[in-house]
Design goal:
With 78 residues, the chain is mainly alpha-helical. The protein has 2 domains: 47 residues; 30 residues. The chain is rod-shaped and about 75 Å long.
C-alpha cells in the first residue's frame, strides 16, 4: 500500500516537472519506465528494515536482562 502511494506521488511529480524534462512526453515515459520498477523493488525490500532494527534493540535489552539475572543468581549460591 505504501509503495503504491509513493509510486503514484512520484509519477505525478515526474509529470509535473516539465521544466526538468524539456523534451517530449516520451522522455517522461522512458524515465518513469526505469523509475517505477526501481522504486517498487526498493520499497518492497526495505519495508522490513525498521522492524529488523527494532527487534535487534529489544533483543539486546532482553538478553542483557537475562544475563544480569543469571549472573546475579549464580553468585548468590557460591
Amino acid at each position: 500500500m505504501f509503495s503504491s502511494i509513493v509510486k503514484i506521488v512520484m509519477n505525478d511529480l515526474c509529470n509535473s516537472c516539465d521544466c526538468v524534462f524539456v523534451g517530449s512526453s516520451g522522455t517522461d515515459n522512458v524515465v518513469w519506465a526505469y523509475m517505477g520498477p526501481i522504486l517498487s523493488a526498493t520499497f518492497s525490500a526495505l519495508w522490513v528494515l525498521p522492524l529488523f532494527v527494532l527487534s535487534k534493540v529489544v533483543n539486546g535489552f532482553w538478553f542483557q536482562a537475562c544475563a544480569l539475572s543469571h549472573f546475579s543468581g549464580l553468585f548468590l549460591f557460591t
